[in-house]
Specification:
globular, alpha/beta, about 30% helix, two-stranded antiparallel sheet, Rossmann fold, about 190 residues
Length: about 190
Amino acid sequence: MLPDLEGTVHLSVEGGCGGTTFALQHARQVLSTGSHVIWVCNEIPDGNRFSQLYSNVAPSAVSRMHLIAIGDNLEQGIRSATGLLDVLNNIALVVVDDWTAKVGRVTTNSKNLISNLSESCKISATPLLIVSSAYEDANSGGWKARGNLEDFDVYFLHRSNVNSMIRELHIAGDVQEYILEDEGFTRRK
């Protein structure tokens, strides 16, 4: 079981560690309760991975996921998500997957768009999960999140140094270990 999401969370992920799976698993939990999810992404999640994660979810529940594939037009995706937040009152999660490029600095425009969406989510009391690639800081040797956003709780997801099959989720100094399987993340005992 993944930790509950509250408020605004920035999941900063080492490449290939399952950031999209983490978000899809949270969305699955929300959809199973009868609520709606807004999902903004550059491209639609991998169909095979989606099928694995949602194999036991009723099609009627999956239909409550409002998927907004935007290509490189983050502004249009954020505008669409904000519009849905304004007209639907049963949205229980907003996800923006891969909101930044994997390399380089985050543009001021992108940060402003995410901040505006965050404000809309706060007004509607809807959790917001944004996902981006992490990078290692050569000076400190630690992981850093792209964008340096204020008012976001930053979670880091990366491979364990001991066993590359184990994923470590770092939340405010706490480290939780997970195994990534076909059904998603399972907490390691």
